[in-house]
Amino acid sequence: MSLDIQLPPRERLLQAAVELLANSDGAPVSTRKITELAGVTAPTLYHHFGDKEGLFDAVVAVGFEQYVASEMDLAPTGKPLDDVRSMWDQHVRFGIEQPHLYLVMFGKVRPGNRSNRVSEAEALLREKIDRAAESGHLNVPPADAVRSILAANIGVTLMLISEPETERNFELSDMTRDAVITAVSSDAGIADSATPVETSSVVVAAIALNAALESSNPQQLSNTEMKMFLEWLHRISKDS
Amino acid sequence: MSLDIQLPPRERLLQAAVELLANSDGAPVSTRKITELAGVTAPTLYHHFGDKEGLFDAVVAVGFEQYVASEMDLAPTGKPLDDVRSMWDQHVRFGIEQPHLYLVMFGKVRPGNRSNRVSEAEALLREKIDRAAESGHLNVPPADAVRSILAANIGVTLMLISEPETERNFELSDMTRDAVITAVSSDAGIADSATPVETSSVVVAAIALNAALESSNPQQLSNTEMKMFLEWLHRISKDS
DNA sequence: CTAGCACCTATAGCATTGCTATATGAAGAG
DNA sequence: CTCTTCATATAGCAATGCTATAGGTGCTAG
After folding, report:
1. Mind listing where the DNA-binding region sits, in residue ranges (chains A, B) (predicted)?
2. Closest alpha carbon to A91 in A124, A138, A61
C-alpha cells in the first residue's frame, strides 16, 4: 500500500492525507486509511498532529499557503477594486481546482464558531479593500465590504462546487462578483426605487422587444435570421 | 429519558431528532441518543426512515415546510423584486432562528452533488423571479438571476450563523441582498462599462418576452417556428 | 374462535470510526 | 554502561451507523 519513498513519517502522513482527500469525492476519510497508506500506525499520527483535525489543519495550511501565494502573484494593478476582483476569481478558482481542500477550509460551518480559515481569508481581502478605501473608492465601512464580498464569494464557490462539472456556469461568479463589488464601491451608486412596467402580456413584451431592436441592431442573428425573427415577432404582436 | 407522551414511534423519533438537533450546538447527533430519547430501539428507526440521513431528511422536510409556509404568508406586493427581497429576508431569518436545521439543509456541500434542498429553494425563488421577468424587471436570464441570488443568500446566511450572536451585523444581509438584486434587475442600471444601455433594453425586452411566452403559448406560430423563434430569442438574451 | 398474515418492534451483535494506555526501540548525554 | 528522551508499535476501548434474526401485535379469513 505505502508506495511512498522513505520520507519522515510526518510528511508521509500529510502526503497520504492529501492523496486520499483528493480521491474520495468528498466522502469522509478515515485515519486508518491514512495511516495505512502512509505505512504508519495510529499513535504516530496522534503523536505528530494531536488528532484528526490537527492533521487536516496541517494539510489545509499547506493548501492555504498555495492559495495565498497565488494571491500574492497578482501584482497590484493600481486600481484596488480590480485587485479585489482578481482576488475573487482566485478564490473561486482555488475552490474549483481543489474542492476537497476548499471544503475542509470553508465547508463545515458551526453556529457561533467561525473557522480560522474564514478569518484568514477575511484578513487577506481586508488588505486590498483597505487600499480601495484609502483612495476613496469605497462606499461603506471596509469591514462591511469585506464581509459582504467574502460571504458572496464563499457562497458562489460552494454552489459551483456542488454543481456537476458539466453544467458549471462561471457567469454566476462574474455576475455576483461585480454585483457586490459595485455595491460597496463609490464609483457607481446603486439606484433604488424605480418604475415597474406593470404590464406582462406577451403582446406588450413583443412590442417592447420590437421597439428595442429597431434602435439597436444586435449581432447575434444574421440578416436573414433577423428578418424572419422580426416577421414572427410582428405576427405575435398582432393579437394573442 | 423519554418524556414524550405516547405518540406513534415515528413521530417520537422525529420529535427527538428535532430536540437533540436543537440542543447540540451543531455537534453531530447520534442515532443512539435519538432512539434513547424517543424510547425506541435502533431497528425501529431504520424501519421507518431507512437510515440516519432519511430521518434527517424527514426532519428537514418539516422544517422546510415551515420555511415555505412563511414564504407563502408574504402576499405578493405587486412589485416582484420586493417579493424577492422578502424572500431573501425570510431565508436569512430561518437560518438564524434554526441554525441546526439550516445547516442540515444547506451546510454539507459535496462536489458535483447538489442537495435536494438547494434545488427546492431554487424552485421557490425561481417562481418570484419569473414574475419579475414577465413584467420586465429582469436584466439577465431568470436562471442566472436565481443562482446568483441564492448563492449569495446562502453564503450570507452561513456567515451570519458562523458568527457569534453578539456581533451579528444584519446590515451585511441587507447590503448584499440589494447588491445582487439590483445587479439582475433592469430597474436601476448597473454602471457597468460592459453593458451599453441600448443593447440592455433589447436584452430586457427579450427576457420579458421569453418569460411571457413560457406562461402562455400563442397560436400564431407553428411548433417548428416557435422552436426556432425561441432559439433566436435565447441568443439575443445572451447579450453580446 | 382460531389460523394465518402483515406490520411493527426488540435482542443481540457486526464492522468501522477516532483515539489511547502501555510497551518497545533507537539515539544521544553523563 | 546507564539513563533520559523521542518516536513508533501492540493491542484495545468506547462510540458510531447499521442489520440479521426473532418476537410480539393486531387484523382478516375460514
Report:
1. 30-49
2. A124
pLDDT in tens, B122-147: 999 999 999 999 888 998 999 999 99
Q: Give yes or no for CB of B24 within 7 Å of strand D.
A: no
Closest nucleotide over all strands to A46 (CA to C1'): C19
Which residues from the 33-52 window of protein chain A have CB within 7 angstroms of nucleic acid chain D? 39-44, 47-48
CA-atom Rg of chain B in angstroms: 22
pLDDT digits 0-9 by tens, B145-175: 999 999 999 999 999 999 988 889 899 999 9
Contact state of B118 with A178 under an 8 Å Cβ cutoff: no
CA angle, B72 then B73 then B74, to 5°: 85
**Residue of A22, A98, A100, A96 whose CA lies nearest to A66:** A98
Phi, psi of A13 (to 5 degrees): -65, -45
Q: Is A167 among the domain residues?
A: yes
Sign of the torsion angle spanned by Cα atoms A118, A123, A128, A129: positive
- Contact indicator for B177, B161 with CB cutoff of 8 Å: no
Neighbours of B164 (CB within 10 A): 10
* Cβ contact A94:A62 at 8 Å: no
Give the Cα separation of B240 and B229 in Å (integer): 18
**pLDDT under 50 in chain A at which residues?**
1-2, 189-200, 240
Contact A183 B182 (CB under 8 A): yes
Is-contact B175 A184, C-beta < 8 A? yes
- For residue A194, is it within any domain? no
> Are A120 and A219 members of one domain?
no
Is residue A195 included in any domain, yes or no? no
Structural domain of B183 = 77-237
Quote the number of domains for chain B: 1
Q: What is the per-residue burial (b if ≥16 Cβ within 10 Å, else e) of A71-80?
A: beeeeeeeeb
Report the C-alpha gap between B236 and B213 in whole angstroms: 15
pLDDT digits (tens, 9 = 90+) for A127-181: 999 988 888 888 888 999 999 999 999 999 999 999 988 889 899 999 999 999 9
